[in-house]
Write a structure and sequence with these properties.
Two copies of one chain form a homodimer.
Chain A (H helix, E strand, L loop, with lengths): L10 H8 L1 H13 L2 E2 H5 L6 H13 L3 E6 L2 E6 L1 H37 L1
Antiparallel strand pairs in A: 1-3, 2-3
Chain A binds a DNA duplex (30 and 30 nucleotides) through helix 4.
Pfam family, one (chains A, B): HTH_20
Organism (chains A, B): Mumia zhuanghuii
Protein name (chains A, B): Winged helix-turn-helix transcriptional regulator
Chain lengths: 116, 116
DNA sequence: CTCATACGCAACCAAAGGTTGCAGGAGGAT
DNA sequence: ATCCTCCTGCAACCTTTGGTTGCGTATGAG
């Protein structure tokens, strides 16, 4: 049985998604479609500049993708990359859950031994 | 259909689990059983003090639970709380995936309209 | 008793999230 | 063409957080 830790996970994706503000930005972009730093910032408790920095991070992680249109710059979610991120979350979760199961089995085995 | 954003998530749990070092620590504690700041630190690329701080964070989030034994202080994973964290990861992932699916369906509908 | 070991506390440093302030470019109104 | 507005980018600065080194202290081994 492979005990390899599931931390072959892309740390940049994780930390991109690890920030609560960025998670909410992704939520908003998914819920309302493409948006700009300004449009996002007035749905969030932070300033436009903070949002802009987060958009850079998300862009660099490939989770969003921005296009300039006139004086606006609108960003939209890269669906494939977000799907990848979701898969990695699931992977880490599954790994932990597997270990918890294993511990539980061992605990039960000890319990049985005591009852003999 | 409820469009409520899945950010009713406990931010403390998320950020506890959001840090890569803390994730590795949880991995180690799950893999090798209870451990001390020292025992963890020499399996990690950071100092004992850094590990100690992370243990405080994890403890405060309820993910681990430490007991003093002589001159050692050993920590072990709180399985129930970690299970909760895993559930929250899964919840956010599911929420995003649902939205991605919805977007995909809409895109296909538009595609069909064009083909008429 | 002495020595090694594990710990906690404090000072310090760099990076990240956040803020304010300002200069510049694109569009609409006069 | 001009003026005004709006959205953007850049720079300076503050605070929190992950990380380090250094030190004092307590506990177990010899």
């Amino acid at each position: 049985m492979s005990l390899a830790v599931a931390e072959d996970v892309d740390d940049e994706l994780w930390s991109a998604v690890g920030d609560p503000t960025r998670r909410r930005m992704l939520d908003l972009l998914l819920a309302s479609g493409p948006g700009t730093a300004t449009s996002l910032s007035d749905q969030l408790p932070v300033t436009r500049q903070a949002v802009a920095k987060h958009l850079q991070v998300l862009d660099h992680a490939g989770l969003v993708h921005g296009t300039t249109a006139g004086r606006e710059r609108r960003y939209q979610v890269d669906e494939a990359q977000l799907a990848r991120a979701v898969a990695q979350l699931a992977s880490v979760g599954a790994s932990w859950e597997a270990r918890l199961q294993r511990i539980k089995r061992i605990a039960e085995a000890i319990q049985r031994d005591r009852e003999v």
